[in-house]
Amino acid sequence: MREKIKNATILEKTVKSDKAQMLKQVQHDMGWFRHSFGALAPDKNLSPFTSHFSRRAASRIIRVVAGVTSRSTSRVGFAIAHTAPYRKFGFTLAEVLITLGIIGIVAAMTMPSLIHKYQEKVRIQQYKKAISLISQAVASQYAANGVYFECYYGSGYDTLSQCSEMFNDIPKYLKVAKYCENNAFSNGCIPDYDGMDTMLKDSDNNMSDEDIQDFVHKNCVGYEKNQIKNSNPALVLSDGTIIVSYLPNWGLKFFLLDINGKKGPNKWGYDMFTAQLTRSKGGLSLGPAGCMAPAKGGLTNTQMYEKAFYGK
Question: How much is the pTM?
Fold first, then answer.
């Protein structure tokens, strides 16, 4: 009998000791969870971090910890698995719909501007590349022949005498995919471009058809719509760039430059510009020309050139 009482006493002490140690471990673990994951229980009566921590709360947590320990669940697994019943996070359907609506409005307001800026940046790089390639070809042509073809602007230098020869020779120094001596549109070298006459008709309502025709014939006859389509020679480079001479015998002295070919938008001031060769004491240089009415929102020749080469 005494032995049974003794064993019972030892067992009771052991249980009390185990409970005390388990409670200490729980309190220790709760402190770890507090620093790592925040408060485990929002109810202050069940929280081990306040003075209101009750025996019932301790008993509940002990059972949870004991169950987790028996399944060899890690501390992190315990925190993830057992914090959910106490604190649930989420959004209502109305909140989600309102948020999506706001995002849609902001996107609708900002996306067109971002797309326009991106497209303009791409066109600036294409323009710079095209001008640089043609300039290099002219320099190579000079290096090969030892002289410049007589085909350029410039004070005391203005001449057309060798423009046809220059235009026929330049494909040696450019990667030309197709050459159209005339009828560039029907022969597939160019898309259906607007000319100066059609551009002015669309952009300036104060000018009559007679005024437009008179202006174009006096100043930019080479870029009249029918002239571009049917008479002017054109080169299509391997990257799609299109060069259209101002008139059949003008070569690269003055030409239309489509920086991305048939891809579009095929609009003046966007991917269509004019350029000219100018001679000075330092040699030949390629730069912006006249006879160009940019479409709405487009850039002038000078604006595009300055953006490409000077970052303005």
Answer: 0.67
